[in-house]
Design brief:
The protein is built from two helices and six strands, in the order βαββββαβ. The protein is of the alpha+beta class. A six-stranded antiparallel β-sheet has the order 2-3-4-5-1-6, with helices on one face. Strand 4 and strand 5 form a beta hairpin. It comes from Methylobacterium indicum.
Length: 97
């Protein structure tokens, strides 16, 4: 299962880097550049982010609905912490294939 969200922000690359650096301590297989990051959380769970000049595209993958909902919440909560100076609005997740 997967869900995706788009966040409009001029600082998407900075948030992508912060999220990936934060999780890389616990998940050393994390990879990232200023434009794309992947965090393999294990147990079929993965977070991917892609930044461009207008924003940040977030994607979470999980083996079941409960895990997917938890991943969405974890990503939204952490992004909110890093973006405390900016009002990103609510993150609207959409299920994707």
């Amino acid at each position: 299962m997967a869900a995706q969200a788009r966040v409009e922000t001029q600082t998407g690359s900075r948030y992508l880097t912060q999220l990936c650096k934060h999780w890389s301590h616990k998940f050393p297989e994390t990879t990232f550049t200023p434009e794309r990051g992947v965090v393999p959380f294990g147990e079929g769970r993965r977070f991917t982010a892609e930044a461009d000049p207008e924003g940040l595209t977030l994607r979470v993958e999980a083996p079941d609905l409960d895990a997917l909902n938890r991943m969405q919440g974890v990503v939204a909560e952490h992004l909110g912490r890093f973006a405390f100076r900016e009002d990103l609005g609510g993150i609207a997740w959409t299920r994707v294939v």
